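Anyone opening a protein record will find just a pair of labelled lines. The record below illustrates this layout.
***
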Amino acid sequence: MGNFQMDDFVAGCLGGASSVIVGHPLDTVKARLQVGKGYGSTLNCIFTIYRNEHVAGFYKGMSFPLASISVYNSVVFGVFSNTQRFISEHWNRSPGNSPYLLDLTIASMLTGFISVGIGGPVDLVKIRLQMQTEPLISEIKSIKDKSPFHQNPTVYKGPIHCLTSIIKQDGFVGMYRGAGAMILRDVPGYCLYFIPYTYLCEWLTEDCHTAPSASSVWIAGGIAGAISWGTATPMDVVKSRLQADGVHSEKYKGVTDCIVQSYNKEGLKVFFRGISVNTMRGVPMSAAMFLTYELSLKAMKKAKVESDT
Protein backbone atom coordinates (compact mmCIF):
# COMPACT_ATOMS: atom_id res chain seq x y z
CA MET A 1 0.00 0.00 0.00
CA GLY A 2 1.64 3.21 -1.26
CA ASN A 3 1.67 5.64 1.66
CA PHE A 4 0.94 3.29 4.58
CA GLN A 5 1.01 5.03 7.95
CA MET A 6 1.11 3.48 11.42
CA ASP A 7 0.21 6.79 13.06
CA ASP A 8 -3.48 6.20 12.25
CA PHE A 9 -3.41 2.90 14.15
CA VAL A 10 -1.81 4.46 17.25
CA ALA A 11 -4.13 7.49 17.21
CA GLY A 12 -7.13 5.19 16.69
CA CYS A 13 -6.14 3.19 19.76
CA LEU A 14 -6.01 6.29 21.95
CA GLY A 15 -9.25 7.68 20.53
CA GLY A 16 -11.07 4.41 21.08
CA ALA A 17 -9.94 4.15 24.70
CA SER A 18 -11.29 7.62 25.45
CA SER A 19 -14.63 6.79 23.81
CA VAL A 20 -15.09 3.63 25.91
CA ILE A 21 -14.49 5.51 29.16
CA VAL A 22 -16.95 8.24 28.14
CA GLY A 23 -19.65 6.03 26.63
CA HIS A 24 -19.73 2.76 28.56
CA PRO A 25 -22.29 3.78 31.23
CA LEU A 26 -24.86 4.66 28.54
CA ASP A 27 -23.85 1.53 26.59
CA THR A 28 -24.86 -0.57 29.61
CA VAL A 29 -28.21 1.25 29.80
CA LYS A 30 -28.71 0.68 26.05
CA ALA A 31 -28.01 -3.05 26.36
CA ARG A 32 -30.42 -3.44 29.30
CA LEU A 33 -33.20 -1.58 27.43
CA GLN A 34 -32.74 -3.67 24.29
CA VAL A 35 -32.56 -7.09 25.92
CA GLY A 36 -34.10 -6.74 29.38
CA LYS A 37 -37.73 -6.31 30.36
CA GLY A 38 -39.77 -4.08 32.63
CA TYR A 39 -37.69 -0.90 32.52
CA GLY A 40 -40.25 1.20 30.65
CA SER A 41 -38.05 4.22 29.97
CA THR A 42 -34.40 5.23 29.78
CA LEU A 43 -34.55 7.19 33.05
CA ASN A 44 -36.24 4.31 34.88
CA CYS A 45 -33.54 1.96 33.58
CA ILE A 46 -30.80 4.28 34.85
CA PHE A 47 -32.41 4.57 38.29
CA THR A 48 -33.01 0.80 38.49
CA ILE A 49 -29.39 -0.03 37.67
CA TYR A 50 -28.15 2.53 40.20
CA ARG A 51 -30.56 1.33 42.90
CA ASN A 52 -29.69 -2.36 42.44
CA GLU A 53 -26.02 -2.22 41.47
CA HIS A 54 -24.84 1.32 42.31
CA VAL A 55 -22.34 3.18 40.10
CA ALA A 56 -20.35 -0.01 39.43
CA GLY A 57 -23.37 -1.43 37.59
CA PHE A 58 -22.88 1.06 34.75
CA TYR A 59 -19.32 -0.12 34.20
CA LYS A 60 -20.01 -3.87 33.98
CA GLY A 61 -18.08 -5.45 31.13
CA MET A 62 -15.87 -2.40 30.52
CA SER A 63 -12.47 -3.95 31.32
CA PHE A 64 -12.51 -6.26 28.31
CA PRO A 65 -13.46 -3.68 25.62
CA LEU A 66 -11.06 -1.17 27.19
CA ALA A 67 -8.21 -3.69 27.12
CA SER A 68 -8.99 -4.80 23.57
CA ILE A 69 -9.69 -1.31 22.26
CA SER A 70 -6.02 -0.92 21.39
CA VAL A 71 -6.55 -3.54 18.70
CA TYR A 72 -10.13 -2.82 17.62
CA ASN A 73 -9.99 0.94 17.15
CA SER A 74 -6.47 0.79 15.77
CA VAL A 75 -7.82 -1.45 13.03
CA VAL A 76 -10.91 0.71 12.41
CA PHE A 77 -9.05 4.00 12.02
CA GLY A 78 -5.94 2.45 10.48
CA VAL A 79 -7.86 0.52 7.82
CA PHE A 80 -10.15 3.45 6.98
CA SER A 81 -7.42 6.08 6.68
CA ASN A 82 -4.93 3.91 4.81
CA THR A 83 -7.60 2.49 2.46
CA GLN A 84 -8.88 5.96 1.61
CA ARG A 85 -5.31 7.17 1.05
CA PHE A 86 -4.52 4.14 -1.16
CA ILE A 87 -7.66 4.64 -3.31
CA SER A 88 -6.90 8.34 -3.73
CA GLU A 89 -3.35 7.59 -4.83
CA HIS A 90 -4.43 4.72 -7.11
CA TRP A 91 -6.98 6.90 -8.92
CA ASN A 92 -4.63 9.91 -8.96
CA ARG A 93 -6.87 12.17 -6.91
CA SER A 94 -5.57 15.70 -6.35
CA PRO A 95 -4.28 15.94 -2.74
CA GLY A 96 -5.79 19.37 -2.11
CA ASN A 97 -9.29 18.49 -3.26
CA SER A 98 -12.24 17.45 -1.11
CA PRO A 99 -12.35 13.65 -0.50
CA TYR A 100 -14.44 11.79 -3.08
CA LEU A 101 -17.67 10.22 -1.82
CA LEU A 102 -16.84 6.93 -3.59
CA ASP A 103 -13.43 6.72 -1.89
CA LEU A 104 -14.97 7.34 1.53
CA THR A 105 -17.75 4.79 0.91
CA ILE A 106 -15.39 1.98 -0.16
CA ALA A 107 -13.03 2.67 2.77
CA SER A 108 -15.96 2.78 5.24
CA MET A 109 -17.52 -0.47 3.98
CA LEU A 110 -14.20 -2.33 4.09
CA THR A 111 -13.65 -1.02 7.62
CA GLY A 112 -17.11 -2.30 8.63
CA PHE A 113 -16.39 -5.82 7.35
CA ILE A 114 -12.93 -6.09 8.92
CA SER A 115 -14.01 -4.58 12.26
CA VAL A 116 -16.47 -7.44 12.89
CA GLY A 117 -13.59 -9.94 12.96
CA ILE A 118 -12.17 -8.24 16.05
CA GLY A 119 -15.24 -6.47 17.40
CA GLY A 120 -17.53 -9.53 17.39
CA PRO A 121 -15.90 -11.36 20.35
CA VAL A 122 -15.32 -8.05 22.20
CA ASP A 123 -18.98 -7.06 21.86
CA LEU A 124 -20.16 -10.57 22.80
CA VAL A 125 -18.19 -10.62 26.07
CA LYS A 126 -19.25 -7.06 26.88
CA ILE A 127 -22.95 -7.84 26.32
CA ARG A 128 -22.75 -11.10 28.33
CA LEU A 129 -21.10 -9.32 31.29
CA GLN A 130 -23.57 -6.43 31.10
CA MET A 131 -26.56 -8.77 30.96
CA GLN A 132 -25.66 -11.48 33.48
CA THR A 133 -27.23 -9.57 36.38
CA GLU A 134 -30.35 -8.83 34.31
CA PRO A 135 -32.95 -11.03 36.07
CA LEU A 136 -35.21 -11.90 33.14
CA ILE A 137 -37.65 -12.79 35.94
CA SER A 138 -40.46 -14.25 33.88
CA GLU A 139 -38.14 -16.70 32.13
CA ILE A 140 -36.22 -17.64 35.25
CA LYS A 141 -39.41 -18.42 37.16
CA SER A 142 -40.47 -20.87 34.48
CA ILE A 143 -37.09 -22.61 34.52
CA LYS A 144 -36.74 -22.56 38.33
CA ASP A 145 -33.97 -24.69 39.77
CA LYS A 146 -32.85 -26.02 36.39
CA SER A 147 -31.28 -22.63 35.66
CA PRO A 148 -27.74 -22.07 36.94
CA PHE A 149 -28.65 -18.38 37.07
CA HIS A 150 -31.37 -19.16 39.62
CA GLN A 151 -28.76 -20.63 41.90
CA ASN A 152 -26.04 -18.03 41.21
CA PRO A 153 -26.81 -14.70 39.57
CA THR A 154 -23.21 -14.32 38.43
CA VAL A 155 -22.77 -16.64 35.45
CA TYR A 156 -19.36 -15.28 34.48
CA LYS A 157 -16.56 -14.34 36.90
CA GLY A 158 -14.92 -11.93 34.46
CA PRO A 159 -14.06 -11.37 30.76
CA ILE A 160 -11.55 -14.24 30.48
CA HIS A 161 -13.91 -16.69 32.22
CA CYS A 162 -16.73 -15.48 29.97
CA LEU A 163 -14.68 -16.02 26.80
CA THR A 164 -13.44 -19.48 27.84
CA SER A 165 -17.00 -20.49 28.86
CA ILE A 166 -18.35 -19.46 25.44
CA ILE A 167 -15.59 -21.38 23.61
CA LYS A 168 -16.13 -24.46 25.83
CA GLN A 169 -19.88 -24.40 25.21
CA ASP A 170 -20.08 -23.34 21.55
CA GLY A 171 -16.56 -23.68 20.17
CA PHE A 172 -14.57 -20.98 18.38
CA VAL A 173 -17.61 -20.15 16.21
CA GLY A 174 -19.49 -19.24 19.39
CA MET A 175 -17.36 -16.12 19.73
CA TYR A 176 -19.03 -14.77 16.59
CA ARG A 177 -22.64 -15.18 17.71
CA GLY A 178 -24.54 -12.26 16.18
CA ALA A 179 -21.79 -11.53 13.63
CA GLY A 180 -24.30 -11.46 10.75
CA ALA A 181 -26.32 -8.76 12.48
CA MET A 182 -23.10 -6.94 13.34
CA ILE A 183 -22.07 -6.84 9.66
CA LEU A 184 -25.51 -5.51 8.72
CA ARG A 185 -25.08 -2.86 11.43
CA ASP A 186 -21.44 -1.88 10.90
CA VAL A 187 -21.04 -1.78 7.10
CA PRO A 188 -23.69 0.93 6.60
CA GLY A 189 -22.93 2.24 10.11
CA TYR A 190 -19.34 3.16 9.30
CA CYS A 191 -20.46 4.82 6.06
CA LEU A 192 -22.78 7.01 8.14
CA TYR A 193 -19.93 7.59 10.58
CA PHE A 194 -16.86 8.54 8.54
CA ILE A 195 -18.61 10.25 5.61
CA PRO A 196 -20.62 12.80 7.67
CA TYR A 197 -17.58 13.40 9.88
CA THR A 198 -15.30 14.10 6.92
CA TYR A 199 -17.65 16.52 5.18
CA LEU A 200 -18.78 18.24 8.41
CA CYS A 201 -15.15 18.83 9.39
CA GLU A 202 -14.48 20.31 5.97
CA TRP A 203 -17.58 22.50 6.16
CA LEU A 204 -16.76 23.74 9.68
CA THR A 205 -13.12 24.52 8.84
CA GLU A 206 -12.52 28.12 7.87
CA ASP A 207 -10.79 28.84 4.54
CA CYS A 208 -7.77 30.34 6.27
CA HIS A 209 -7.04 27.08 8.11
CA THR A 210 -5.56 23.90 6.64
CA ALA A 211 -6.82 21.65 9.45
CA PRO A 212 -10.07 21.64 11.46
CA SER A 213 -10.03 23.21 14.92
CA ALA A 214 -10.62 21.17 18.08
CA SER A 215 -14.16 22.55 18.36
CA SER A 216 -14.90 21.64 14.72
CA VAL A 217 -13.68 18.08 15.30
CA TRP A 218 -15.74 17.82 18.51
CA ILE A 219 -18.93 19.04 16.79
CA ALA A 220 -18.43 16.98 13.61
CA GLY A 221 -17.56 13.84 15.61
CA GLY A 222 -20.57 14.25 17.89
CA ILE A 223 -23.02 14.74 15.00
CA ALA A 224 -21.52 11.82 13.04
CA GLY A 225 -21.85 9.60 16.11
CA ALA A 226 -25.50 10.56 16.62
CA ILE A 227 -26.32 9.86 12.95
CA SER A 228 -24.46 6.55 12.84
CA TRP A 229 -25.70 5.10 16.14
CA GLY A 230 -29.23 6.42 15.69
CA THR A 231 -29.68 4.74 12.29
CA ALA A 232 -27.89 1.56 13.45
CA THR A 233 -30.31 0.98 16.34
CA PRO A 234 -32.68 -1.60 14.68
CA MET A 235 -29.82 -3.95 13.76
CA ASP A 236 -28.05 -3.15 17.04
CA VAL A 237 -31.13 -4.45 18.89
CA VAL A 238 -30.98 -7.72 16.90
CA LYS A 239 -27.22 -8.04 17.48
CA SER A 240 -27.59 -7.44 21.24
CA ARG A 241 -30.38 -10.01 21.53
CA LEU A 242 -28.43 -12.65 19.62
CA GLN A 243 -25.31 -12.04 21.72
CA ALA A 244 -27.20 -12.06 25.04
CA ASP A 245 -28.98 -15.24 23.95
CA GLY A 246 -27.33 -18.18 25.65
CA VAL A 247 -26.69 -16.63 29.07
CA HIS A 248 -29.92 -18.14 30.43
CA SER A 249 -31.39 -20.09 27.50
CA GLU A 250 -31.22 -20.10 23.71
CA LYS A 251 -34.23 -18.65 21.89
CA TYR A 252 -33.01 -17.54 18.46
CA LYS A 253 -31.78 -19.59 15.49
CA GLY A 254 -30.30 -16.62 13.65
CA VAL A 255 -30.79 -13.03 12.47
CA THR A 256 -34.07 -13.64 10.63
CA ASP A 257 -35.54 -15.74 13.46
CA CYS A 258 -34.59 -13.06 15.99
CA ILE A 259 -36.25 -10.34 13.87
CA VAL A 260 -39.44 -12.41 13.39
CA GLN A 261 -39.73 -13.47 17.05
CA SER A 262 -39.01 -9.95 18.34
CA TYR A 263 -41.57 -8.44 15.95
CA ASN A 264 -44.27 -11.03 16.75
CA LYS A 265 -43.88 -10.55 20.51
CA GLU A 266 -43.24 -6.82 20.80
CA GLY A 267 -44.12 -5.20 17.48
CA LEU A 268 -42.12 -2.80 15.31
CA LYS A 269 -41.25 -0.52 18.24
CA VAL A 270 -38.89 -3.14 19.66
CA PHE A 271 -36.34 -2.35 16.93
CA PHE A 272 -36.16 1.25 18.11
CA ARG A 273 -35.71 0.36 21.76
CA GLY A 274 -32.76 2.29 23.11
CA ILE A 275 -32.62 4.68 20.12
CA SER A 276 -32.59 7.75 22.37
CA VAL A 277 -29.78 6.41 24.55
CA ASN A 278 -27.91 5.16 21.45
CA THR A 279 -28.08 8.62 19.90
CA MET A 280 -27.19 10.40 23.17
CA ARG A 281 -24.30 8.01 23.77
CA GLY A 282 -23.05 8.44 20.20
CA VAL A 283 -22.45 12.18 20.67
CA PRO A 284 -19.90 12.25 23.55
CA MET A 285 -18.35 8.92 22.56
CA SER A 286 -17.63 9.91 18.97
CA ALA A 287 -16.70 13.48 19.85
CA ALA A 288 -14.13 12.18 22.36
CA MET A 289 -12.90 9.53 19.93
CA PHE A 290 -12.35 11.83 16.94
CA LEU A 291 -10.88 14.64 19.04
CA THR A 292 -8.38 12.31 20.73
CA TYR A 293 -7.60 10.74 17.32
CA GLU A 294 -6.95 14.08 15.60
CA LEU A 295 -4.95 15.55 18.52
CA SER A 296 -2.84 12.37 18.72
CA LEU A 297 -2.08 12.51 14.98
CA LYS A 298 -1.16 16.18 15.31
CA ALA A 299 1.15 15.48 18.27
CA MET A 300 2.86 12.58 16.47
CA LYS A 301 3.41 14.64 13.30
CA LYS A 302 4.82 17.51 15.36
CA ALA A 303 7.17 15.12 17.20
CA LYS A 304 8.42 13.73 13.85
CA VAL A 305 9.09 17.21 12.48
CA GLU A 306 11.01 18.19 15.61
CA SER A 307 13.07 14.97 15.52
CA ASP A 308 13.95 15.54 11.84
CA THR A 309 15.21 19.08 12.43
The longest helix spans residues 275-308. Residues 136-152 have pLDDT under 50 and may be disordered. The radius of gyration is 21 Å.
